Amino acid sequence: MVSACGSAQNAGTGAGGGPTLPTATSSSEVPPGIAPGEIPPDGKPVTKLDTTALPSEYPRTVWTQGDGKTVGVIGQEGGCGKASASVLEQSASVVKIELVETLPLTKQACTMDIRFPPLTVQLAEPLGERTVALTSRQEQK
Fold first, then answer.
1. Which residues are registered as beta bridge partners of 96?
2. Per-residue model confidence (pLDDT) at position 37
3. CA distance to 9, 32, 110, 120, 141, per residue, from 106 (Å)
4. In CA terms, which of 54, 63, 73, 81 is 20 to 30 Å from 46?
């Protein structure tokens, strides 16, 4: 059995130039049954990644779907936590995506498992040759 405890980690990565564009946020999931490290059958792997701000145990699987405006990532959640993803910034060279695990405010009995749900976010423009920079944090609500 594996358990995880963590503190909020919110380290930013430097972005090279370009205006910040408005962002769209979504936590809709891709079809269930996608395992960590796998992408959906209609997905295209993203290879230009900046994952230096992620804890070492976090998944690093990213893909695009359709016209390239939909970006999929594998999140991480455990116990009573719920994973989501949002776009923090979109510039000409980088798209910053934050992975968030939301934990309940009140103490409750929770399983001690770790899950890796697939999540998607919507971009204003197709990803193209831009780098995807991933960050993560935990919050309580």
1. 89, 133
2. 66
3. 21, 29, 11, 28, 9
4. 81
